[in-house]
Amino acid sequence: MAHAHISAQLPPDIDPTKAPLAFGERALPKLNEELRAPELLTQQRALMALCDLLHDPENVYQAIHLGFLDNLKILLLDSDSTVRQKSTEALYIMATHDVGRHGFIQNRVIPALAQLLDDPVDICRKNVHQSFEMMARLPEGAIDILRAGLIPSLVCQLKTELDEIQELILDTLANCLCLEASEALASGAIGTLKEKLAHPSVAIRSKAAWVLLGISIHPEGKTMVFEEDVVPVLVSLLEDTEPEVQAKAAGALMFATVTPQGRYSALGAEAIPALLKLLAGERSEVRLSAVKALTMLAELPEGRQLLLRHLAAFERCLNDPSEAVRRAAETAIRVVKWTP
């Protein structure tokens, strides 16, 4: 189940023939009429033709102007699974365009899509979450998801959804929770994400760490990351075999060690040796997060004493190709050398 691939293939008894398109400017208005037709096959054909047309942003703009979004919201609740599949697909394609994302916000599409979070058809749920993930990339879209009150449901679904959909949920949460994390924290997100840090999937481990980074931006998030003993798990991921996991874990640790409790927790988990190894990592993102996390640990007398023996590692970073890493290394050296 965990490795199942979600297929978009239509049932064998569905006629895949698309609706014959009207010419020119009449094409979309005709399809909009057919979406309201009483015949199921007419609706299915219209939806299939619509999905093809919506790859053009000009058609998305016209579709929104013609009121397609209201018709698609109605079809989301259709008893026919193919109608729901193609309706969610059409909405996802619209969400890939900037004009479509703004149309979602203006027409309250997100709450309508949320009605399918428990749809029995995997591809319908996948299309819904792909739409949410696209919306969350836009700050206004992330705010719309937060306002719709979807965060508790998304956190809960991390426990039961297919891996493919879990990845989409984590991407959505990462973009939303850096803005506001209180609902997620109240829904037990920290405990759920801690479990995901041990997931066999590289993508899920790294994305879970990335969500924790977003949560740790907030003071209450930092506190709960410490209280739920997540810091030692993040430290262990610094030695993960996958660079992507290392990068995200180092980033999350960088924020978690802002508080004294987080620093002592990381120090107790022996984060310093693991972080020092990452200073020679291939990715500038990893090196930068490692330098900043080590700088935080140097704020502790015990950390500073340990790091004084490794000044050469920071000095090598002064020649790093990344300007951000060079600046961070300069700060780190000053903190490590500081004497009370």
Describe this structure in words.
There is one protein chain. The chain is mainly alpha-helical and 340 residues long. It has a domain at 15-148: Leucine-rich Repeat Variant (Alpha Horseshoe), CATH 1.25.10. The chain is built from 23 helices and no strands.
Distance between the termini: 57 Å
Structural class: mainly alpha
Spans where pLDDT lies below 50 across 5 or more residues: none
The fold-level CATH name of the domain at 15-148 is Leucine-rich Repeat Variant
Describe how the helices and strands are arranged.
Elements: H1 27-35, H2 40-53, H3 57-66, H4 68-75, H5 81-95, H6 98-106, H7 109-114, H8 122-136, H9 139-147, H10 151-157, H11 163-177, H12 182-186, H13 189-196, H14 202-216, H15 219-227, H16 231-237, H17 243-256, H18 260-268, H19 271-278, H20 284-297, H21 301-307, H22 311-317, H23 323-337
